[in-house]
Design brief:
It is built from four helices and seven strands. It is an alpha+beta fold and 133 residues long. The protein has a single domain, classed as Electron Transport, Fmn-binding Protein, Chain A (Pnp Oxidase, Chain A, Roll).
């Protein structure tokens, strides 16, 4: 059986546009397409519009996020990344994965998006890199 962290990491690594799900105040689930990357075995996503993004505000309010794919659902938590060196590695991963995407890529590696870099921690508490935090 595939470990949840491995499945989530594989999903983010091989999927260009990832579908995430967050919950509204009344409990409805809203699906949103986002970009994501994997750096040193850990998955990351960013809010391209910072705090004005509805999905980001829902995530910060509830702490709940799920990554969806046909036939699988990966529940996770996120941690805001404030370390500049880690953000720079995530920038490089976005540039490598999404090269050729023009202004959308540029916006993904500049503020405000990079200020809202989120490290993804699978529900089982084991980071994608495989070691408990």
């Amino acid at each position: 059986m595939k470990h949840a962290a491995t499945g989530l990491r594989d999903l983010v690594e091989r999927t260009s546009t990832i579908t995430i799900a967050t919950r509204t105040h009344d409990g409805r689930e809203i699906s949103t397409p986002v970009w994501g990357v994997v750096v040193d075995g850990t998955a990351y996503i960013r809010s391209g519009y910072g705090e004005t993004s509805q999905w980001y505000r829902r995530l910060r309010r509830t702490g709940e996020i799920a990554f969806l794919t046909r036939g699988a659902r990966f529940e996770a938590q996120t941690e805001l990344v404030t370390d500049e060196a880690e953000r720079a590695r995530v920038d490089d991963a976005y540039r490598a994965k999404y090269h050729g995407h023009g202004i959308a890529l540029t916006q993904s590696v500049e503020s405000p998006a990079r200020d809202y870099t989120l490290r993804v921690v699978p529900e089982d508490g084991v980071p994608d890199g495989g070691e408990a935090r």
